[in-house]
Amino acid sequence: MKRLLIVTTISSTLRAFLLPFAYHFRAQGWQVDAMAQGVSNCNECKQAFDLVWEVEWSRNPLDPKNLLAAPLIIQELMAQEKYDLVHVHTPVAAFVTRYALKDLSKQRKCKVIYTAHGFHFHRGGQLLKNIVFLGLEKLAGLWTDYLVVINREDELAAKQYHILPSERVRYMPGIGVNLDHYSPQEVPEGEVVRVREELGLSPENPLLLSVAEFIPRKHHRDVIQAFAKLSRPKVHLAFAGRGPLLKKMQLLAADMGVKNQVHFLGRRDDIPTLMRASVATILASEQEGLPRSVMESLSLEIPVIGTRIRGTQELLEGGYGLLVETGNINKLMEAMDWVLEHPQEAHMMGKRGREHISAYDLRQILKLHEDLYTVASFCQI
Q: Which of 33, 98, 121, 228 is found 20 to 30 A from 139 (Cα to Cα)?
């Protein structure tokens, strides 16, 4: 039996993106385990994986405490379970795990694959930050057998900076979106009516939606400020997600005079319904890898307003959404206004998006992982 360990920094990453991979490879006879902080409290994770392992580390990739206790836990687990393959995701988990396994990897006793969900160095990033994170990626590249990148800018950067030899850099179009689930035909109209009634919306109340964790790089502040500047009392804005900036954004909405039009929904399990209830989705981030919320929205034929950054631009350029510069409140407001003023054009933009997103189907991504895992030529410890 082949043994695979998937490692992420926090369990919500497993729950949001990687459960289909566990089910897929377990169905092929693999043992598929997971390690993350908080995973023991994630019922969906415990159901999807054979075994789950708890680990504590800081989400700050520069926190030196990450290199103290966690590597010993990982090394002990490897000695116990003898995994053939370790696939790491997210910066902290990826760096610490590769550091912990660097000797085993050098001895070719296991294979380590890293999926970069958007390098922390990128065009438009701060110079010092880019230098630091590029240096960390190059260092960790010495402990990595294969690097998976999910957008073309990162693919170019990985090869330009020789993070790994080019033949060991693999481009995959994202982490996959289930086009059968994220389909207009799979969202009953009655559910759309229900969610709009939940928000107190009438047919005269268009809804804009943003699905993103409340952290600084997602720029919720820009969305609220642009929405307030829009000055349309009948239009509503909803945020789906949680995070440390949630209360600040609630206060900002009140300060901007749009408290009664802005809905903070927390974590939701009905994202497809929320998207179908909206005229457009908005992602105002300054940094992304290849944002799933954009792919989900396009899959559901809902147009997207996004920022002109790596990943988002790759998904939207070509007439599948509206692109604005990060932090440009006026242009963001104008994009909202365009969607509201041109409903038919916006609708057709969403329809084209569904056709475009077929290349990002989860089934294709699973097949690419199968191919990579085969090439990785497993070795026993």
A: 33
